[in-house]
Amino acid sequence: MDTEMGEAEHAMLHFVTPGETVTADTVFMRGHGTYNDGEELVATVAGVVERINKLISVKPLRARFSGEIGDVVVGRISEVTQKRWRVNMGARQDAALLLAAVNLPGGELRRRSESDELQMRQLLSEGDMISAEIQGFFQDGSASLHTRSLKYGKLRSGSLVTVPSSLVKRSKAHFLHYTLSPGLHVDVILGMNGFVWVSKGSKDANKKGDVPNSTQEDADALYANVNEPITNEERMAIARVSNCILAIAKESELITEAFILLVHEASLRIDCKDIVANSKQIIDAAKMSY
Amino acid sequence: MDSVDRKRIHGPDKSVLPLPLLDSQHESVTSKTTLNPSARFDGRTHEEVRPLFARTAMVSQANGSAYIEVGCIKIICAVYGPKQITTKSKSGDHHSGGRISCDVRLAPFAGLKRKGYMKDTNEHSLAKNLATALTPSLLLAHLPKSQIDIHIQILQATAGHVSASSTSSATVLPPPSFATNLSLLLSPCITVASLALADAGIEMMDSVVGCSVGLFRRTDKNSLFWMVDPSEEERETRALGGGVWVGNAVVGVMPSVGRISGLVVDGDVGDVGVLMEAVNVCVDACAKVHDVVVKKALVDGFHAASSPVSGSSSAV
Amino acid sequence: MAVSVCEREFTLTGVASNIRSDGRGRSDVRAAAVESGGISQASGSCRVSSAGGTTVLVGIKVAVGAPAVTASTAADADLDADIAVDNSEDAELSISDADLRRGRVVCAIDCNPAIIPTMDPRAVEDLCIDFSEVITKILNADHGGLDLQSLCIVPGSTCWVIHVDALVLGYGGNLLDTLFQATRGALHDTLIPKVTVEESTSASTGNTSYEFDVADDETEDLKGCENIPVIVTLFKIGHHHVIDPTPLEEACSDVQLSVAINRKGLPCAIQKTGNGSIEPSQLAEMIQDAKAHGATLFKDMDEAIERQRVRSLNDTK
After folding, report:
1. What is this structure's pTM?
2. Which residue stretches of C108-196 are H helix?
3. Disulfide: which of B250, C9, C92, C255 matches B168 by Cβ 3.0-4.6 Å?
4. d(CA A247, CA C176)
5. Å from B105 to nearest chain C CA?
6. What is the pLDDT along chain B (316 residues), one digit of tens a residue?
7. Do B136 and C99 touch (CB under 8 A)?
């Protein structure tokens, strides 16, 4: 389902509109985007029918991000309330990041005290950008996030790009690292919700994953508000990658690690600020060099 | 003719002011200004501001207040706060610091014609420009979740007389031009509001003083000249002895740090060099006003508050 | 808009290095598409859509109404009650007469708060009121370019009132400049019905009375459109300033200077907004930059208007 569809496959897609019967066969279980009207399964959204074994669901053409457990998302803190932060990730509701679900400076197994609650703003305050993973959902459908691994947390040294969430597919790699030229690194965090963080890359290509015994310094540095020094070249590279991602989104192509690199190559002959205006040419050139 | 009321004595249908006397006075002044544009109707140089009267603690109920009189303009300002913010804003109150809300009202009897109570665009614009000029001076980061309400009441906005004449060099009412109203009133509003804020004991980086400058074009030489703090007569008389009013600039200045916190320029001001010269002179004039009037008003107000006998007001 | 400390610092250092988040320099603007005449029911219309997402649609309706100063209000103010139009005095018309012969422009801007989700709904309304006032003020002033005297029908009582109604359809930063650009385009597109005015002087009283007739089919262009200024708003971010900012850059800017530049390349209105303050030297620098941008903007807009004129000529053929 991650690959691009060919012409033949395109013809086999079953489009439905709200109120249209998807199937009258009772053997199927109903999934998202459908409801039971007596014996029949009727679509509630306008979209494409997806069948996985006995589960039938209708995937809408365009919808706000809803997400599933395990999704990597990028979001902005919108509110600081008792024991949790509210995170805006472009979904139907703001997600909740519980105080208990973040790494606190001072070690892994520290008990959350009252002073932690009162000092939540020292860690994350309104406007901060974070990357996190969806841990679960509350009864009302809002997501619960966690930043338990060291690869998640406050985002620095970069800028945000927003694309439609349907263009970001679930994959193994959401934390991308590009070595555009020797010494020039750019990191991209592809949030499933369509928020993409493009930043200055870390020197080594191996990202720090879960480290069981994080040092005090690592933990303290988690919530620092200081950007790393960025050279003009790196800044231009970040801008170029950002514009490439916007160009891909403009042409409604899937945003994947490989495609971003291809588009970047194809864009090198054009001025950075003109990339989005010439998106069609660049995307066509990138697709040809597959 | 049948409808003439014979019981009353009617004056002439058309009445005119005793012009010969007025005109000759005017003529001598205008001829003076033709020769020397720096000599103005009231004898000031083109860099001088008009005498200002300022006094604090005029409204006992308010946390801070001030009153100002310059020319024919009388403005009173009351400051309430800092107090709990009344409306919640989306972005979160704590990290944006405190908020100010400015409200400017012209009294119904302030102008020549009675003005109703409906707020009009002039008042809204004045309030907005006033807030813009005052905000940089306030240390709002020290007042999270608080708001300061600034209420300005303009008691008198014009001299109230019009010297009408049927000859061509007419001195007439200001045209219903927005720009004229604004510049006439914004600069004293800024000064009195800043004075009231200081009277309320609100932490500020610096006072803000407002000053306006009129830009005129010499009809014969087509060059520009400016005059600080133009009075109503000067503004109204578009043909000011050899010069035509082309525009004005209102500047709000923080004198101690020398920074401009408010700026509204209107009119075909043309040469940027002349405009910047005028703005720089405003900055100097504001520094003088600050030293002589604002400081004195605050000090006198302090003395008045601490001594049982009501103290003197500061008048220049 | 809530912005993180890191993003603010990134933006500031980017502007200082002349490399903004989208690769533009401080003086680079995003491309904007200008289309006029889309709304047939309006006397004039224009839509400007910027590549950054800011889209504005302006519709103009002209109506017969009263000027700002009428004969009755002037009389109240102690002037001569008879506003007799005596040809011999034409050369020495007092200013009051000129004001009685002015048309006027009323601008209203509407923006649905949902379009700017990062701002409070009341703040959005306030913003619309502020911008409406700025545009109304400029277009009604002498330096607004329009020949308002040509809009006079009956001096002192009737004139054309031009209603400028702007709709904000999308927001991507730099709203005021785009609004004024669309207003300018719409005014260029505006056609005013021809009016025939008949003067008759009563022999007994010596008073002049007027009758006017608005033609159904004949229209004429609005005079003076070429002289309408352009607005360039400079946003000070750190120690430098940019034009055409993104919403993030707007949130990082502490002082905004809106400068209206006329065709001669000179400023005719300046307004400072924002919570910060500037030094006089910075002010001079910003005004000079605005002049340069204004000149470029005039050139671009003239070209766009010319293209539009050619296109509509070809359409009517």
Report:
1. 0.85
2. 121-140, 175-189
3. C92
4. 27
5. 17
6. 557 677 777 777 776 655 554 444 444 444 333 334 556 777 788 888 888 899 998 888 899 999 999 988 899 999 998 888 876 655 454 456 888 999 999 888 887 777 777 677 778 889 999 999 999 999 988 888 888 999 999 998 876 543 333 333 333 333 434 345 666 789 999 999 999 999 999 999 999 999 999 888 877 777 778 888 887 777 766 545 567 778 889 999 999 999 999 999 988 877 788 889 989 999 999 999 998 888 888 888 888 877 765 444 444 4
7. no
Q: How far is CA B271 from CA B216, B246, B268, C265, in A?
A: 12, 12, 9, 10
Nearest residue of chain C to residue B99 (CA atoms):
C275
Q: Considering only CB atoms, which chain C residues are within 8 Å of B172?
A: 79, 94-96
C4 contacts A129? CB cut-off 8 A: yes
Please say if the pLDDT value at position C282 is more than 70: yes
For B128-204, list the strands marked E by DSSP. Answer: 146-156
Which chain B residues are Cβ-neighbours of A125 within 8 angstroms? 95
pLDDT digit string, tens, across residues C104-115:
999 999 999 989
Please check whether residue C218 touches B, CB under 8 A: no
Q: For chain A, which domains are there?
A: 7-60 (2.40.50.100), 72-230 (2.40.50.140)
Q: B162 Cβ partners below 8 Å, 6+ apart?
A: B112, B171, B172, B173, C77, C78, C79
Q: Do A76 and C4 touch (CB under 8 A)?
A: yes
pLDDT at C75 over 80: no
Q: State the Cα–Cα distance between residues C56 and B312, nearest whole angstrom.
A: 57
| A225 to C6: CB separation less than 8 angstroms, yes or no | yes
Strand residues in chain C grouped as ranges (E) = 32-36, 44-50, 55-65, 104-111, 152-154, 158-170, 191-201, 208-221, 230-237, 240-243, 255-261, 267-273
What's the pLDDT at B172?
Answer: 35
Domains of chain B with bracketed CATH: 52-302 (3.30.230.70)
C-alpha–C-alpha distance, residues A166 and A248, integer Å? 12
Residue with the larger pLDDT of the pair B117 and A95? A95
For chain A, say whether C6 makes contact (Cβ under 8 Å).
Answer: yes
Report yes or no: C130 at the B interface, CB cutoff 8 Å: yes
The SS3 call for residue B205 is: coil
Work out whether strand C152-154 and strand A21-23 pair parallel, antiparallel, or are unpaired: unpaired
Looking at domain C21-72+98-311, what is its CATH homologous superfamily?
GHMP Kinase, N-terminal domain (3.30.230.70)
CB-based burial, C267-299: b 16+ in 10 Å, e otherwise: bbbbbbbbbbbbebebbbebbebbbebbeebbe
CA atoms within 13 A on the CB side of A198: 25
Closest approach of A154 to chain C, Cα-based (Å) = 9
Handedness of CA A222, A227, A229, A234 (dihedral sign): positive
Sheet holding A195-200, edge to edge: A158-162, A195-200, A184-190, A175-181
B95 touches chain A (CB under 8 A): yes
> How much is the pLDDT for A110?
67
pLDDT of residue C20: 95
Contact of C9 with chain A, judged by CB distance below 8 Å, is answered with yes
Q: How far apart are CA C289 and CA C274, in angstroms?
A: 19
**Type and span of the H or E element at B67:** strand B64-70
- Are B121 and C291 inside 8 Å of each other by CB? no
Residues 272 to 291 of B: which have CB under 8 A from any C CB? 272, 275-276, 279-280, 283
Whether C6 sits inside 8 A of A240 (CB atoms) is: no
